[in-house]
Every structure is written in C-alpha cells, then in structure tokens.
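Hi R.,

Here's the input for the zinc ion complex you asked about:
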Amino acid sequence: MAPNQNLAAVLYGPNDLRLEERPIEQPAFDEVLLEVDTCGICGTDVHFLKEGGFGAQMLIKPIVLGHESSGIVRKLGSKVTHLKVGDRVAIEPAAGCRTCDLCKVGKYNVCLNGKHCPTQKHDGNCSNYFTHYADCCFKLPDNVTMEEGAMLEPLAVAIYAGRKVDIRLGNKVLIFGAGPIGLMCLVAAKAMGATRTVVLDLARVQHRLDLAKKLGATGVIAINKDDKEDDLVSKIQKILGGPADRVLECTGSQPGMRISIRSTRNAGKICLVGLGNDDVSLPMVDAVSREIDITTAMRYNHDFPAAVEIVASGYVNLKPLISHHFDLKDVHEAFRVASQSEGNKIMVHLIPRDTNNKNKFAN
Ligand SMILES: [Zn+2]
Ligand SMILES: [Zn+2]
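And here is the predicted structure with zinc ion in place:
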C-alpha cells in the first residue's frame, strides 16, 4: 500500500461493491486515527451487499462496509491519554451520541443518534484507515492476534446475548443457527456456565454443525426440509436431557423462534439475537402460559472488556472459527464466499497477515 492511501470497500447498491480511494479523516480531540489490520465479514455486511441494507437501515448513500475490525493506533486526538501510537486495538463499532436519554441510562447500543457502523449514515471500517472514538478502542494484549481482535466484535454480541438471558452454571442451552454468531454464542454460553448445549442449523451447512461439535457442543441437529416441529423439539430435549433453560436464537426465522419457544422449560429465557423474517407467527399462548421470558439483543453493551479478557486468558479459543483469509484487493471474492455460507468466519487482511501478530502463525 502506498503511504497515506486509503482504499475502502464501498457499497453503492445491491451487489455493487467497489474498492475506491477515500480521504483519511483526522482524529477529533477524543478520537484516534487507526490503520485497520483485519476485518471479519458479518451477516449484516452480506445483508447490505445483497439487499442494500436491512430493516430501517437501507442504503441512502454509498457506505464503507465492515465492522468487525482490529487496527493499529496511528494518531491520537489531543485529549486521548489511555492509548499510544502503535497500540494494537479491537474496535467497538457501536458508539452512542453520549448525551441522549438512552446513552444516559446506559443503552448506548440502541442510541438513535449514535455513530454505529456501518449504518445508513456511518461508514464501516473495511478501509485502510478509520477514525473512531478512542474509548471505543480496546488495547489487545501481546498474545492476542489481530484476527482474534477482529473477532471480539461478534464475541461481544454473544456475551451480551448470554448476559441478557442470565446464563448460569449448570444451564442447558439451545442455540439456533450455526453461523458465526451462533458459534460465538456456543463459545460464550459454555464460558458462562452452560453444561449441555445443542446447536441446530440446516443440513446444507453441515460443515458449520461439524465445527459446533468441535467447539464442544453436546450435540448438533441438521434440519431437513420435511422435519416436523414436534420431532425437532424432542430431539433437542433428548440431547439436553430435558427442556432448555436458556435459548440463544440466532436465525431470526419463524421456525427457529417457534421451536425455541416450544423447547424451553417453564420460566425459561430466550434471547432473540438474529435478524431474519420481518413478521412471524409464534405459539404465544404456550409462551405466556408457561411464563417464558423472551428478550432481544442488539449489538453489545460494554461487553468488549470481557471479550478481550476471555480470549487473552485462554479461557476460550476462537481460532477454529476462522475459515478463510483474503487480502483487501480480493474483497469481492471474500464477500462471495461469505454470502454463499461456504465457510465460517471470513477475514479480510488490510495489512499483510501476521505483520502485527506477536505470536506468528497463531492463526
Ligand atoms: Zn457483526
Ligand atoms: Zn445517545
């Protein structure tokens, strides 16, 4: 890369992704300028690419994709004291406005005026340079790789979801969906005390279910087109040794939510993590009469410190989740692989791989 060149993966409309030069923004007093090292591709990036956005976040102008990134601090704003130039950091892409009512009660993750990225108005960070609030950058210990740093974002999603349903030691946990977020939820649920876990996904993504098994799921279930809801519920309960205490639903699909409700014990808790069907029909009489708590999770709520700690301490191992590596120039191919669900976590390297890893070839 030529010095001071800022190439970015910019989305202009559905299936119109371009690599183009963008200006490098100077940091404000409370910001840092980062040179992005690694960016993982997320399901929401794929939604943007295929459909031009999702829900209220439809594209209104070209935006830079990407939000699961790690980088190197290159410049400090005048008031930044907790970071120094050269620090390796994980980037939390959700940043509230800091002054609204939601921010003041600690719900910055759903602040309406926030600089969450990528959204309609804010660029993501699949670009050589990115300027961001310094307090949303978390320093990585030397033993954590830049790839692991990039995966702290989806791990934080999973930790937040687990916290929202209060996963406790001895819980039996059902995880619906074996994509990157589902697998992160499996890792987080086990770290939080789940003793038995079952992961479901479609039979055509058997490779993801195999990885769930490798990551320590008690059992996995491959769903076929003709499978009946009743049968899936009894298979789940057989693997768990009874109904689920907690559920992390990562598909947002009607079948996923229906089966989640039906598999949960009375007074159990379900967190809806995935975005899928806009409208669904659910067995609500069953849910209400059995007092099942159904909650939702959007992004994370100051979960990066825990994410850094459980990776840095070796408490969890995220390395098996990475399936592909691409350079920025091959970003189109990276997105093609991501949108075909061929792999698991797909990494785009904006700086040649391992340049900033202290543990070389760690993954
Ligand atoms: Zn993501
Ligand atoms: Zn706010």
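One thing worth noting: The pocket of zinc ion (ligand 2) is lined by residues 96-97, 100, 102-103, 108, 111, 113-114 (CB under 6 Å).

Cheers,
M.
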